[in-house]
Amino acid sequence: MSVFTVHEPPLRATDVGPDPARFAFVRDGFSFWAFLVAALWMLWHRMWLVLVIYLVLAAGLEAGLHYAGVSPAAIAIVELCIAVLVGLEAPTLRRFTLAQRKWKNIGLVSGDTLEDAERRFFDAWVHETSLKPSAPAAPKPAAPSPMPHMPQASDVIGLFPDPGAGR
């Protein structure tokens, strides 16, 4: 069963409330496509800042290893390790990008497929929003709380009252 985080986009000027059709579900776990073609995966998800950082770091690391005289096989192993790291951290990179765009993380849901997770989330979300009152209720005045017996300074030893001091 997969775990998804649910993200709500910021409201547009014409929006009255959140638009469920625009919610983003980010599956937690290894991303095969991010591992296989990281740059294209980042372009597909419009992760511009992450793409620039990835390209600068990957090119800089490869050039540094090349100028250090490291064998091509070792450079290929380093590139493979970077690809595995991107595949493992792909959901975190997506959540980072959504947070930079002011999207709110509004929930966590699990499901066998994305459709199951969406159904479970929206069932709970509709139920939760139907329970909220339409107009805010006036706050009730706070009832005075009864004051417990406050021991005198001579009644207290450390944090606890002396059992025989109140007699």
Structure description:
- There is one protein chain.
- The protein is of the alpha+beta class.
- It has helices at residues 32-36, 38-44, 48-67, 72-100, 114-131, and strands at 2-8, 24-27, 104-111, 156-157, 160-161.
- It has one domain.
- The strands form two sheets. A three-stranded antiparallel β-sheet has the order 2-1-3.
- Helix 3 (48-67) packs antiparallel against helix 4.
- It is extended, with a radius of gyration of 28 Å.
- The chain starts with a strand and ends in a 6-residue tail after the last strand.
- The model has no long low-confidence stretch (mean pLDDT 85).
Strand content is 5-15%
Low-pLDDT runs: none
What shape does the CA trace take?
extended
Could you give the count of β-strands? 5
Our Rg estimate from Cα atoms comes to 28 Å
Distance between the termini: 64 Å
Q: Structural class, from secondary structure content?
A: alpha+beta
**Mean residue pLDDT:** 85
Main β-sheet: number of strands, strand sense, barrel status? 3 strands, antiparallel
Count of spatially separate domains: 1
SSE sequence, one letter per element: EEHHHHEHEE
Total helices: the number is: 5
- In percent, how helical is the residue content? 40-55%
Spatial strand order of the main sheet = 2-1-3
